[in-house]
């Protein structure tokens, strides 16, 4: 099996020019925990923002500046200051045996899937692996 067999296609992405507040609202409204960050100008994948990283940033702001300043700080904090820029990427044909080991070794929840032009095609999440496990278990019955 390959990445293309289990990935979530057309994931919700966010522009590198968005704010942390934009990301916070987008994650809440779309019920996602990972946002591939794409360049506003080229549309290419440039980073990944995780819910864990976003919450950590918000809590740091809250502790440092207090509740009154939190909204303003979130609105003026660019995604580029918070996102992971060294995120591992996958291709459509990457074997799942390699990907699952990478998830286990690095305790990841998501990896973006990109094409040869670095455009986001999908994401593979830990939930995608759980769904695959469910399918395989149901076949065994």
Automatic annotation (TrEMBL):
Gene3D superfamilies named in the record: CBS-domain
Keyword annotations of the record: CBS domain
Name this polypeptide is given: CBS domain-containing protein
Pfam family, one: CBS
Gene source species: Shewanella aestuarii
The keyword Nucleus belongs to this UniProt entry's keyword annotation: no
SMART domains: CBS (SM00116)
PROSITE patterns recorded: CBS
Domain of life (superkingdom): Bacteria
């Amino acid at each position: 099996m390959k990445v293309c067999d289990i990935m979530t296609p057309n994931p919700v992405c966010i522009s590198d020019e968005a704010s942390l507040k934009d990301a916070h609202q987008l994650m809440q409204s779309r019920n996602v925990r990972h946002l591939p960050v794409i360049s506003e100008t080229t549309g290419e994948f440039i980073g990944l923002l995780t819910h864990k990283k976003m919450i950590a940033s918000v809590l740091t702001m809250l502790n440092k500046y207090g509740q009154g300043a939190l909204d303003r700080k979130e609105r003026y904090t660019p995604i580029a200051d918070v996102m992971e820029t060294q995120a591992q990427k996958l291709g459509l044909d990457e074997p799942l045996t390699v990907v699952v080991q990478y998830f286990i070794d690095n305790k990841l929840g998501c990896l973006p899937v990109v094409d040869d032009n670095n455009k986001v095609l999908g994401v593979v999440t830990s939930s995608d692996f759980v769904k695959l496990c469910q399918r395989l278990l149901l076949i065994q019955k």
